[in-house]
């Protein structure tokens, strides 16, 4: 074997060791398209297979975008699997339909579906990880494309050697990132490897191809012959900086956290402003990630809007407790006396009719309500509490149901002689804004009997003439929306 190619194989093996990308006896799914990069990846892993006692499987994703060429690619990859004696799986994806339905570019749609397909193959074959053939050139293209789009540190760090991708259950390994496409091409030629050329990789209509074939060559020729190395260094610095900011934000989140409940996080706004602006942005992202239970990529504009909203020179939480900022129709951000509240927006639970004597559970609201007939008991007044109330059964003799607040709701709070808007009652009772829309209401024939947990209606109270009572009991139950912080 020529010295240079032997050196590449040695570098590849050392890279696997130093980065701890794989372990002995690992089951790996190699994502093989048939192109030169994945063809070299297959050959390199074949040569390392015995040393590591690896169990390899080939996975091929058919994008159904290039007609007969795509079919030939699939057949070629199947033949490679047979040649190397490896299991082979091929999965077809509907890129065009997905792009149209989700309003995505073909590139983005293909990437989403490709990883989903590889994830499914991984489950089927029992592999531990997905291995892709991304090279140093791919890394440079990715970083430059992100830079041109105005990416933050997360985008500038490029593709990590080991990645966790949203909605993909298995880690993605990229062991060829240290190697240039030129090195990979030389390796493939030296070992007389056959591969397929994807003509779509040269089409200028794709953004990535314009970066690859137009911008990067221009930069190498006119500005910096070592642009790949420069961008790779930038990725390393950005990655280290982002790791630091994420760590600092996690610590800041713990230090500013007042409350972490189901679907809601409250932070101490005064302490929040003691941190550097960069840490503040990452604290916001960390809070949103916990509420949405997904990796959140905040745009620069979104971050600026939220920070501006929270800025004490623009926001007066004590004077304007209802002022709010809506983030992507997913999270509502507003200020109250306690601090800044991040509240997950959830559909209002459906109203439910209540059968007397049966426990009515609303898991989406995290409550259960039970209404029971009881004989008049002299101790009802002493037993009454926020979660346990008693009303006149004769006055609440109609159909009972539990629902949630709507615009225009009114009732007659116990002790009053006139009606009051429910919204005004909540304000006067200092009910936190985040809790108002999900406060359960028990009603009888469309009249509010009990603002559960807060106040009975005067019209249903127990009087000296009351013969029998209804006991109303409110309980908390686990919601269908757990949040862990």
How would you concisely characterize the structure shown here?
By secondary structure, this protein is α+β, with helices and mostly antiparallel strands. It has helices at residues 3-18, 36-52, 68-84, 95-102, 106-125, 136-148, 153-156, 181-190, 207-222, 227-256, 269-272, 277-292, 300-310, 380-383, 422-428, 433-436; strands spanning 27-31, 55-62, 88-92, 129-131, 162-163, 172-173, 257-261, 264-267, 324-327, 331-336, 339-344, 352-354, 359-362, 367-375, 388-392, 400-403, 410-411, 420-421, 441-444, 447-451, 455-456, 468-476. The chain contains 16 helices and 22 strands.
Task: Considering the chains and any ligands shown, give keywords for the structure.
single chain; 485 residues; Phenylalanyl-tRNA Synthetase, Chain B, domain 3; alpha+beta; 6-stranded mixed β-sheet; Uridine Diphospho-n-acetylenolpyruvylglucosamine Reductase, domain 3; elongated; 5-stranded antiparallel β-sheet; 41% helix; 16 helices; Rossmann fold
